[in-house]
Every structure is written in C-alpha cells, then in structure tokens.
TrEMBL record:
Keywords: Membrane, Transmembrane, Transmembrane helix. This is Protease PrsW. The chain crosses the membrane at residues 6-26, 38-57, 69-88, 113-132, 152-172, 184-203, 209-230. The keyword Transcription does not apply. The lineage of its organism: Bacteria, Candidatus Giovannoniibacteriota. PANTHER family: PROTEASE PRSW (PTHR36844:SF1). Pfam families: PrsW-protease. The keyword Coiled coil does not apply. GO terms for molecular function: peptidase activity.
Length: 238
C-alpha cells in the first residue's frame, strides 16, 4: 500500500464512525445548532488529543515519582494511571467544548450543552482513532477494519457517553448557575468512573468471554445513561 492510500484509508476509517454518530446526535436536536459552531467544537476536540497526551505523560511521570516515594505496588500504579488518564481526557474534552461553544451566544438552551460536548468527544475520538488505526494499518487492512469496527461500537460510544454525562451538568444547571460547580463535579466523577472502568477491562483483558461481557455492559450502560440524560435535557425547564 503506497503512502497516500495509507493516509486516505486511515482517515476514512477514523472519521466515518465519528461523523455517523455526530449525525445521529444532531438529528435528535429539535433546534439545530450552527454547523460552523459544531465544526469548531469538533476541531477543538481533535486538538484536545494532543493536550491529553501531554497531560497523561506528565501524570504518569509524576505517578512514577510518587510510587518510588510512597512504595505502593504496580497494581495501584496502574489503577492510578487508568483512572487518572480517564479524568484528564474528560477534562480536556470539557475544556474543548467550554472554551468554544458553551461560552458563546449559541448556548441558549439546556440541551445545547450535550450537543456541544458530544461534538467535542467525537472530534477527540476521531483523532484518537487515527493514532490507533495508523498503528494497525502497519499490520494489515483486515486488522485495521477489525480495530475500526471495535472502536466504532465500543470506544467511541464510551467517549460520547462519558462526555454526555458532563454535558448534562451544564444542561441541568442552565437555569441555576449557582449549582454549576457542584453539578460539574458530580458529572466529572461519574464520567471518570465510567470511562475508567471501561479502560480497566480493556487494558486488563485476557481475551475471555466474561471480560468481553463486562466491556459491552459498560458500553450499553453508558449509552443508555447518555440517551436518558439527553431526553431529560430536552425537557429541562426553569
């Protein structure tokens, strides 16, 4: 496979799943947001991958120093990295949406927060997919398609679901801004738990059927929570 074909295939496999899910969420919005604003948030989410990698590398290095100082074992080192990385990714996606659309004039109804947060999550997932698929394409096209299908169903949905939980905090505090910090703390806490436990079962996977059931269960749980919160946000009133 020549270089240009390699780049094109990696881009297509990475972006198509994100674009599909973006279309799915946008069609659920009764008052569609400006496409330019959605694109801006999507691109900010992509940029967030770079920021997240820098933060994760710094966190891992700090964790390594603390491990040597306090003497805790490899298991707890791994756990702190898994949930720490999940937290940093959720913070990064939140910042991508907050510093673009959520602070703008277009954030004029509660459900908008979830739309913009999902757009940021999908941008983040799209660039993350490129990094994963770029490596898998070195193995072969078949392997790349398998990775794309897995991330289409699982990893991408986890990104969206976890970030939608945080988006609901902005949505439900739309008319009560004095409660926003508390709502955001709760949203970040549960989003990190969902994302972290998913990562835990992925990283600790030994290929067993039970492990795959746990992974799929977290994906289904996350998607169900996100859809319920979205419907509640659409009906949110003063």
């Amino acid at each position: 496979m020549d270089f240009l074909a390699y780049i094109f295939l990696a881009g297509a496999l990475a972006f198509l799943p994100s674009l599909f899910w973006l279309w799915f969420w946008l069609k659920e919005d009764d008052h569609p947001e400006p496409r330019r604003e959605i694109l801006l948030v999507f691109l900010a989410g992509m940029l967030g991958v770079v920021v997240a990698i820098i933060l994760e590398n710094s966190f891992s290095s700090a964790n390594n120093v603390f491990q040597k100082f306090f003497g805790y074992g490899a298991f707890w080192f791994s756990i702190l990295n898994i949930f720490g990385f999940a937290f940093l990714e959720e913070i990064t996606k939140t910042a991508a949406a907050f510093f673009t659309a959520i602070r703008s004039k277009y954030f004029d109804e509660p459900v908008d927060a979830m739309i913009y947060m999902v757009a940021a999550a999908l941008g983040f997932a799209a660039l993350e997919n490129i990094l994963f698929l770029g490596e898998s394409l070195k193995v072969g096209v078949t392997q790349s398609v398998m990775v794309s299908a897995f991330r289409f169903i699982n990893a991408l949905l986890i990104h969206v679901s976890a970030t939608a939980i945080i988006g609901s905090a902005f949505a439900f505090s739309f008319f009560h801004k004095e409660r926003r910090l508390r709502e955001l703390f709760i949203g970040l806490f549960f989003a990190t738990l969902l994302h972290g436990f998913y990562n835990f079962f992925i990283i600790k996977s030994v290929g067993g059927v039970l492990n795959q059931i746990w992974i799929t269960s977290f994906v289904i749980l996350g998607a169900a929570i996100a859809l319920v919160l979205f419907e509640r946000a659409k009906r949110a009133k003063i």
